[in-house]
């Protein structure tokens, strides 16, 4: 069934949003936004959006997005604290539809930047952000949320990258409004350096082995798990090793003037694509470098 996007505006909507989160991460998880917090965010001018499925006259919430009012360098911005999609509706465009509605609301509010924290090991989120939306990542925070004993985070430090979505940048306009492929799709593998090494472990899961400490090319690949959820279930130690290896590689690259500009999935393996560049250059680009 198709979904429709609308604002979450009252108690019934907030209860549905709380339940969606609980279904995804557990009813007792500290990482959820409960009804009182959602009501406060709504009252304080935040943006709360829902993706609804209607069948037989009954509405069901299949996705939700929550933004806080924020600022960046003194300019109005929005900080996304929640993007949740019912697992049965994954890979059906729900997240992109919510982001599209968020972009339209931001334009009406004269907001140019929406930013959020994202787990660098979650490839699906990276694919949407960098390949579908034209976002970039500009920084990394170790254990940003502290230890969380919920399904997506249990046993791992909550490292996060800062994803920036400049909604009216030429890069974003080209991808979303002009239906162009992201600029990095035109790159050949010969122009990329693989910074991390990995191998298949006895568990059948891939794990990291080393980080090459010398990035030399303008474009650098950092491998991450192809499916973090499956990896955590089958080989938790490999997931922990990926966290530490990714942390080392990502911090090295950000400190050397690189930004994340894309996400590559090739041969069953997944990689963040870094470019040595500055924010203004990459955001102003709408064609292959």
List keywords for this structure.
8 helices, seven-stranded mixed β-sheet, four-stranded mixed β-sheet, 30% helix, 289 residues, alpha+beta
Q: Please tally the helical runs, counting DSSP H or I stretches of 4 or more residues.
A: 8
SS content category: alpha+beta
Percent of residues in β-strands? 25-35%
> Care to count the β-strands?
13
Summed over residues and divided by their number, the pLDDT gives a mean of 93
Spatial ordering of strands, largest sheet: 1-2-3-4-5-7-6
Q: What string, H for helix and E for strand, traces the elements in order?
A: EHHEEEHEHEEHEEEEHHEEH
Q: Which term fits the overall shape?
A: globular
Unreliably modeled segments: none
Q: Could you describe the largest sheet, including whether it forms a barrel?
A: 7 strands, mixed
End-to-end CA span: 40 Å
Rg, alpha carbons:
19 Å
Q: Percentage of helical residues? A: 25-40%
Task: Report on the architecture of this protein.
With 289 residues, the protein is of the alpha+beta class. The protein is 30% helix and 33% strand. The chain contains eight helices and 13 strands. The protein has a seven-stranded mixed beta sheet. A four-stranded mixed beta sheet has the order 8-11-13-12. The model has no long low-confidence stretch (mean pLDDT 93).
């Amino acid at each position: 069934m198709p979904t429709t996007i609308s604002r979450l505006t009252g108690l019934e909507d907030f209860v549905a949003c709380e339940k969606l989160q609980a279904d995804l991460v557990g009813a007792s998880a500290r990482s959820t936004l409960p009804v009182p917090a959602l009501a406060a965010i709504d009252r304080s001018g935040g943006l709360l959006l829902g993706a609804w499925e209607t069948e037989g006259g009954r509405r069901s919430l299949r996705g939700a997005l929550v933004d806080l009012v924020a600022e960046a360098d003194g300019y109005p911005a929005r900080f996304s604290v929640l993007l949740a999609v019912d697992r049965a509706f994954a890979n059906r465009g729900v997240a992109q539809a919510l982001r599209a509605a968020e972009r339209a609301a931001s334009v009406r509010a004269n907001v140019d930047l929406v930013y959020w924290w994202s787990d660098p090991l979650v490839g699906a989120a990276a694919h949407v952000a960098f390949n579908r939306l034209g976002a970039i990542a500009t920084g990394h925070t170790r254990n940003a949320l502290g230890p969380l004993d919920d399904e997506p985070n249990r046993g791992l430090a909550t490292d996060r990258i800062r994803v920036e979505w400049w909604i009216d940048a030429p890069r974003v306009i080209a991808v979303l409004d002009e239906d162009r492929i992201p600029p990095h799709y035109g790159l050949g593998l010969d122009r990329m350096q693989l910074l991390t090494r990995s191998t298949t472990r006895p568990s059948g899961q891939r794990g990291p082995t080393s980080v090459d400490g010398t990035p030399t090319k303008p474009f650098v690949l950092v491998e991450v798990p192809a499916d973090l959820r499956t990896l955590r279930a089958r080989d938790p130690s490999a997931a922990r090793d990926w966290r530490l290896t990714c942390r080392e590689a990502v911090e090295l690259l950000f400190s050397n003037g690189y930004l994340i500009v894309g996400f590559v999935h090739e041969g069953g393996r997944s990689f963040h694509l870094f470019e040595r560049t500055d924010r203004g250059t990459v955001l102003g680009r709408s064609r292959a470098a």
